[in-house]
Each structure stands twice: as structure tokens, then as C-alpha cells.
Write a structure and sequence with these properties.
Distance between the termini: 18 Å
CATH architecture of the largest domain: Orthogonal Bundle
Order of helices and strands: HHHHEEHH
Helix content: 55-70%
Radius of gyration: 20 Å
Number of strands: 2
Shape: globular
Largest sheet: 2 strands, antiparallel
CATH class of the largest domain: Mainly Alpha
Strand content: 5-15%
Length: 172
């Protein structure tokens, strides 16, 4: 069996995101003092307006704990505000502050320019097909995540760095 990660879509997409995301990370962290995750949440709040932390986590496809940590940082930096819901005082609503809106409006064109430079590698005539294919792959990935998400549960207590893989565990 030949193993070549270049044949894996996720491997190749991850590399593109990592390489094209590095300048975005430098901009976010070096010039604006925010993380890339915080940037992701800021642009979602800018686009979607006021949302609950759970809704934001779902839209960002991140777990609630990571969103909670990032939101805490954004609140500390006065970029996001947290208020009680109108109908349900126990419900929390997140929204950008004026400072957060100004940051998004300043940073977004710079990030957009980086993305445009990466996208320029694809001929203009092929870009619609690329985005159509990406939309189809996103729908299929969501379907697979729902299927596998119910069949296989991650066991972080037993996996990852805490316990090295032992090849004989998976033998017949």
C-alpha cells in the first residue's frame, strides 16, 4: 500500500490554510493583538450580528469551550460585549462593540487581499466551479461528521499525547 498524504484532500487543504493563514495570523497577532480564532469570531459577529455563544460556536464549527475562552479574550480587549437576552434574562447575547466593528473594517480588507492573492492561482473562469465544488464538499463533510460523530466518540482521556499508540491493539 502506498501512503502519500498528497492524495488526501484534508492534508492538502490544511497545508493551503496553514500557509495562507500565516500572514493573516501575523497581521492579527502582530498588528492587532488578537488571535486567528478571535478574528474568526469577530467576522462572524460582524456578519451575523448579535448571537448567543452557542450559536457562535455552531457557526464557527468550534466547541463551546474554545469559543468561551476566545470570547472572554475579546471582551477583555473591549471588542465584544455580552448582554442579557431581551426575552430570557438568563440567555447571553454577544455583539461587537464599536471598537470591534472598527477593527473588522480595518483588518478585513487586508485579509481579503491575502485571500485574493491565493485565489489568483486559479483562473478566473474556474473560480465559480471551485466554489461550487467547495460548497458540495462542505455539505458532504457535514453529512459525514454527523454520521461518524454518532458512531465514534473521541476518547481524549485515552488518546492523543497521553497514551502512545501500540500497534498490537488493532491487530486481528
Amino acid at each position: 500500500m502506498e501512503i502519500d498524504p498528497e492524495n488526501l484532500l484534508n492534508f492538502r487543504l490544511w497545508r493551503i490554510v496553514s500557509m495562507s493563514g500565516a500572514p493573516v495570523t501575523r497581521l492579527c497577532e502582530g498588528r492587532y493583538g488578537i488571535t486567528r480564532r478571535e478574528w474568526h469570531l469577530l467576522i462572524l459577529l460582524f456578519r451575523d450580528g448579535q448571537v448567543s455563544p452557542s450559536e457562535l460556536a455552531e457557526r464557527a464549527t468550534l466547541d463551546r469551550a474554545r469559543v468561551s475562552k476566545a470570547v472572554a479574550g475579546l471582551i477583555e480587549k473591549s471588542l465584544v460585549q455580552k448582554t442579557a437576552g431581551r426575552d430570557d434574562r438568563c440567555r447571553v447575547i454577544l455583539a461587537l462593540t464599536d471598537k470591534g466593528v472598527r477593527l473588522v473594517k480595518e483588518l478585513f480588507p487586508q485579509v481579503e487581499a491575502i485571500n485574493a492573492r491565493v485565489l489568483s492561482a486559479v483562473p478566473l473562469a474556474d473560480q465559480d466551479a471551485l466554489f461550487t465544488a467547495l460548497d458540495a464538499m462542505t455539505r458532504k463533510a457535514n453529512e459525514i461528521a454527523r454520521e461518524i460523530g454518532t458512531d465514534i466518540r473521541a476518547d481524549r482521556c485515552r488518546g492523543g499525547r497521553k497514551r502512545p499508540w501500540e500497534g498490537n491493539e488493532f491487530s486481528d
